Amino acid sequence: MTTRPIESLLSESDDPAVLREFLRQAQEQLRQYAGFEQVMADNAARSEALLAEASRMRAASITIEPEIASSLESIRAHLASAVAALDDLQGKIATPPSFKGIGPDPATSDLPPGASETEEPTMGGSTRTDVLIHNIGSPAMARSAQAHLDSQPGVSRADVRELAEGLLRITVEGDVPLASAAFADWEPERNRTVLTERPGVLEIDLTETTPSR
After folding, report:
1. pLDDT digits (tens, 9 = 90+) for 44-62
2. CB 160: neighbour CB atoms within 10 A?
3. Does residue 136 share a domain with residue 88?
4. What is the rounded CA–CA span in Å between residue 25 and residue 16?
5. With a threshold of 0.70, does the pTM exceed it?
């Protein structure tokens, strides 16, 4: 049996069934055309979006590239500074700095000059006593203690060695050992407590006298 095209059947027949079939086929073709048009529109929109994104990325890369170059230059500069600092530190470690002489202590700079710390001890019948006096509040009081000891019988010299944080150290040399009684008439308004008294060392704590009520 030979199948005739629907157009020829439509032109030759008024059968409702034939007309409905023709209408169905026409609607199906229209739906296919509409689907093709939607696919083409979607592809065109997607292509346009891709082109816009590519253009944006190109513009962003043009802006970012100088910033990246500047950051790289800054990093290189910091690295160069760090390398220079390490080289300098290595040089200092390899060659320790020389120590310069330390200046005089401000607390004792205005005291009378004493004998050298490296001076040899007095030989013969002389004795040497290290006198330590606590709570010396000023260089003037230190000079007073030195002058008092220097005036004691049998004392040949009294040299201030150190005054630091209220502690006065005086080296006394003489013909007889120095005793705590030598301070009996010095600073009578202060109390004196003998902390140590033995050959070669005399240590005294000086305090204010508490007024009587």
Report:
1. 888 888 888 888 887 776 7
2. 22
3. no
4. 14
5. no
